[in-house]
């Protein structure tokens, strides 16, 4: 919830949506008929881009649904990824458990961003940490996914966290 | 033999993909090369003699370095379909692919990125909304 909004807030291009077909990865068949029978089980993938000309860098942002049946997509996306933002909707805190578990297991650095909707429930970062049993080394950032500045802050927190993790690992 | 009746009002891209996704790949769901979503592609300038219209569109999208994800989104096709088309183009020497995605980006790259993000954030400060840097970053 809000991931498309978050990507949109920072992307220089209008977020593109493509789809990955669940059955193709699951079955691995070349049968056209087999694929078509199940072609309804597609999943949207949000995609945004940020260019930093001064640094000659391009940052790609991918947004995928948080349900664990999409793990196969996270696998591909997390290959070579700098890190991940787990965007939490306070109305459905428990929805992010699969994502937290995935990144913990794979050793992928992540931050938890709590999307504060105007009418959503307000929690403190400590309450969110308690509720989701998030390790104290993982940053929790409150954000407004619609706001460019706020969304950029989330990305800065992530990169800072990744840098810290990488440098402390190599010491 | 015509793929569509001639009175079919498929006028432009708004009509959506003209053919079913897996028709353009002849039912193939496995690309010939190992491509991931962030693999960068670049046209070599070579035009394969026998390619489908979808190949031509994909090739055109790679005139400047472009990621697999971006091609898939612009083709309005599932990622797997884009990968199959792109891997054909690679096999025909019409495209070259960038190095495979590395597992750990180097420290300097991350520091540069952090620097870029901080500048962007500074530029998007509401009190500095007229900052020219912002326009520069959005340009293209």
Tell me what you see in this structure.
The complex is a heterodimer of chains A (171) and B (140). Chain A is α/β, with parallel strands linked by helices. Chain A has seven helices and six strands; from the N terminus they run H-E-H-H-E-E-H-E-H-E-H-E-H. In chain A, 40% of the residues lie in helices and 23% in strands. Chain B has a three-stranded antiparallel beta sheet with strand order 2-1-3. The longest helix of chain B has 17 residues, at 107-123. The radius of gyration of chain B is 20 Å and the shape is elongated. The chains are: A alpha/beta (171), B mainly alpha (140). The interface between A and B is large, with 47 and 49 residues.
Instruction: Give the biggest sheet of chain B.
Output: 3 strands, antiparallel
- The stretches of 5 or more residues of chain A where confidence is low (pLDDT under 50) are 22-41
Beta strand count of chain B:
3
The ordered string of helix (H) and strand (E) elements of chain B is: EHEHHEHH
* Spatial extent as radius of gyration of chain A: 17 Å
Task: Summarize this entry quickly.
The complex is a heterodimer of chains A (171) and B (140). With 171 residues, chain A is an alpha/beta fold.
Keywords:
heterodimer, A: 171 residues, alpha/beta, three-stranded parallel sheet, 23% strand, B: 140 residues, mainly alpha, three-stranded antiparallel sheet, 5 helices, 3 strands, 39% helix, disordered C terminus
């Amino acid at each position: 919830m809000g991931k498309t909004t978050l990507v949109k807030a920072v992307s220089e291009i209008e977020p593109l949506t493509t789809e990955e077909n669940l059955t193709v990865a699951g079955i691995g068949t070349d049968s056209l008929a087999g694929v078509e029978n199940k072609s309804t089980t597609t999943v949207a993938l949000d995609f945004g881009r940020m260019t930093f000309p001064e640094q000659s860098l391009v940052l790609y942002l991918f947004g995928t649904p948080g349900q664990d049946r999409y793990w196969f997509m996270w696998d591909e996306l997390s290959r070579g990824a700098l890190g991940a933002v787990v965007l939490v909707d306070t109305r459905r805190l428990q929805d992010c458990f699969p994502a937290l578990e995935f990144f913990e297991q794979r050793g992928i650095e992540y931050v938890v961003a709590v999307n504060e909707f105007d009418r959503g429930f307000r929690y403190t970062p400590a309450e969110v940490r308690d509720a989701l049993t998030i390790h104290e080394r993982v940053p929790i950032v409150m954000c407004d996914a619609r706001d460019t500045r706020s969304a950029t802050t989330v990305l800065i927190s992530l990169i800072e966290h990744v840098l810290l993790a990488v440098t402390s690992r190599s010491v | 033999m015509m793929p569509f009746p001639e009175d079919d009002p498929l006028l432009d891209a708004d009509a959506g993909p003209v053919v079913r996704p897996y028709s353009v790949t002849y039912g193939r769901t496995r690309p010939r090369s190992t491509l991931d979503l962030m693999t960068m592609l670049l046209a070599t300038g070579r035009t394969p003699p026998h390619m489908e219209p979808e190949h031509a569109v994909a090739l055109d999208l790679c005139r400047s370095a472009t990621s697999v994800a971006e091609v898939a989104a612009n083709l309005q096709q599932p990622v797997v379909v884009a990968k199959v088309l792109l891997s054909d183009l690679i096999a025909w020497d019409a495209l070259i692919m960038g190095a495979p995605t590395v597992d750990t980006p180097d420290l300097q790259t991350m520091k540069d990125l952090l620097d870029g993000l901080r500048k962007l954030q500074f530029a998007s400060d509401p009190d500095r909304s007229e900052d020219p840097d912002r326009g520069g970053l959005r340009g293209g």
